[in-house]
Amino acid sequence: MTYLKTALLAATAIAAAAPAMAEWAPSRPIEFVVASGAGGGTDNFARTIQATLNREGIIDNSVVVLNKGGGSGAEAFLYAMQNEGNAHKLIFGTNNAYLLPHVAQMAYSMENLDPVAALALDEFLIWVKADAPYQTATEFVEAAKAEPGSVTFGGSQSKDTDETLVSLIEQTTGADFKYVPFNGGGEVGVQLAGGHIDAHVNNPNEALGQWQSGAIRPLCVFSPERMAESEPIHDGKGWQDIPTCQESGIDIASYRMPRTVWMPAGVDEEAKAFYTDALRQVAESDAWQEYLDKTSQTGVFLSGDELTQFITDNETSTVEVFAAEGWTSQ
Amino acid sequence: MGNFDLLMQGFGVAITPMHLLLMVAGVLMGLVVGVLPGLGAPNGVSLLIPLTFSLDPTSAIILLSSMYWGALFGGSTTSILFNIPGEPSSVATTFDGYPMARSGESTRALTLAFMSAGIGALTGVIVITLLAGWASNFALRFGAPEYFAVYFLAFAAFIGMGSAAPMKTLVALTTGLLLSTVGMDTITGSVRLTFGYSELLSGISFLVVVIGLFGIGELLSTVQEGLRFRGVASRIDLRDVLKTIAELPRYWATSARSALIGIWMGITPGGPTAASFMSYGIARSASRKGKAFGTGRPEGIIAPETADHSAGSCAMLPMLALGVPSSATAAVMMGGLMIWGLTPGPMLFATQPDFVWGLIASMYVSNLIGVVLVLATVPMFAALLRIPFAVIGPMIVAICFVGAYTVSNSTFDLWLVLLFGLVGYLFSKLDYPIAPLVLAMVLGHKAENAFHQSMVLSDGSLGIFFANPLVSTIMAVGIALLVVPKVLAFGSRFRRRIPVE
């Protein structure tokens, strides 16, 4: 066994050395490990990249998508830990990769993951039922202040991005909401349309259908500037007509969720460079722009130091919220 | 334009040579993934999604949904022949399907299953056609307390008339509830009962447990009884198929009731698995005479199969109209929908009539194709039982392990299959019922979540379960199903003074 391994390694080494320091290229099918169940936002993110890579001929190797969404996505990151140094596995997630270990005892840590790139920022908005009494975000917050605990916020999972944002609104404005966790954005959306909760902070893509039909309406968006121009969606209003939360009186400049790609720790720099380049080509393609438009996300391309800086900033500010809520697991 | 005109327009979209070809291909592929346990419809459909990028959305959804129907049909095959459910929703089919096949009537069992499945699916599609607008509004009225009431009703319907000893039922039920709590909890975000095993973080997969309990457990019993495969060689004759079809009208009441249960559970996203259990439980409560359920009663096959398929097809409605998938497969298809650039929601019916009605029309056609294809293969599948145990036994073991591995590509699950194989063997030796355990695993976590959410909403008051007419009615029916049979049994025992055996 060992002998065979050595022989194989030697053979590979010779084969690799032959084209004199040629760039690294995948030699086997690549596995895309998705840190969510099939059908969610992270899943669509990974599958769009998979389709673009193959259709644009950026990577010829076949790509297999594997959903490991258990434990809010922890399953995928644990899988990365078990596959240290494996250059044929990419992990797709959000900021859950570095936030999960703060709220729950996890067997993996950031040491086990190597960030490759962030390709999009998903926006968060405050949505209320169309016939709700509040017209602006300020009115909404005032209502929650007037009767603490009477306004119900629904969200996806607990101690995850949605509840963090709701807590952040509470900490910033001094209002008091009741937070009810559900299984996913879709479920939360229906609960609002049915009037069982008062508000949610779903992503544009999750809420589009209900807004189109006039069941719900947005109050404000947690981005530094207004969203990109779009066709009118309902009642003559499009994404660009939604005020930012800061201009409507909630002092949170930006709260966005990055869509991130990771590799197991211990992978060669060349392999990482190969994937960074491939993902950059995806980010520059028309198909990617189309995906961003359809899902109303903001396109970015962060890699290397920029990405590390982004992660550090995002982690620090979020962990402050966790600490104030007493969620940190250590 | 009325729904009927739209449907006709949909048939125009759906019936083209290309689409018919896609339906046949989809159903055949679905049959294959359905027959293999573990590799269920959700996996099959997600594997196909990248292939659909080159198709237009209507062709793509026709291919994917046909595969779903095929998988639903295929899932019943292994349930009946080997006691290994191919799909979670065909677990309830094993209760009577397997005994019937074992007594030499495998052709009859399979035909009953496939025909009722077809009837269920068609009823479901007709309901979608008629109620497209109304049904999605009804589903909106379901908040957390209503969901809990529905799950409560499913438990009550199944357990109220349980024939096993009450204490043993309780043991099985609580074991199932305990198993369903393993892993990360949605409501609190805390990790429970994993004992430091990171493999347990995502919980114990229901399918893995079922494969162990039924597949391996059954095999162990067979081995103990002297390596004889208990499936008696059955006559394989197309006439048997026709004879079984002729006896179907006799069970119209069961079919109609089960279809209704399925429709309801499909629209108010309870899901096909819950529907099949509930329907089986109610069929058992409703039957008065004849041999006991669990020994090969035709109604015991008709009820879960009809409900499973009508729920499966009705689940498409909340997915399209609300963006809420009520089954795992619908969730995957919804992901596909978004990739193709369609936004599920109430406006989809208005903005994409060709897509929506093309899909609905294709559901009529592909389910008919499914029934024909699957009936044609009945003799072939039934012939599997003639193979000697020495050959088929190892094959079943292999299928079980491959199936369990494919659920989440984890070797840890293989140990779980072995463990639950032993549990299943002990359960059947000691006369503990397995069904309550399985039901608790399917619905336990959902019921717990809904209960917890209700408690958060009401600040801990149980009054929320009787706060409006809808939730009160469902709760009242549930309580009645749980209590009335016991009271009646007690009453009649008292009157006749017949001692308990």
From TrEMBL, chain A:
Designated name of the protein: Tripartite tricarboxylate transporter substrate binding protein
Signal sequence, start to end: 1-22
Keywords from the named record: Signal
CDD domains hit by this protein: PBP2_Bug_TTT (cd07012)
Organism ancestry: Bacteria, Pseudomonadati, Pseudomonadota, Alphaproteobacteria, Rhodobacterales
Keyword Zinc-finger: no
UniProt key word Signal: yes
Domain of life: Bacteria
Family recorded in the similarity comment: Belongs to the UPF0065 (bug) family.
InterPro entries membership: BUG (IPR005064), Bug_dom1 (IPR042100)
Pfam families xref list: TctC
Automatic annotation (TrEMBL), chain B:
Tree of life domain: Bacteria
Organism: Paracoccus rhizosphaerae
Keywords: Membrane, Transmembrane, Transmembrane helix
Transmembrane segments: 20-40, 60-82, 109-135, 147-165, 170-188, 200-220, 319-343, 355-375, 387-408, 414-443, 464-484
Name of the protein: Tripartite tricarboxylate transporter permease
DUF112 domain span: 20-439
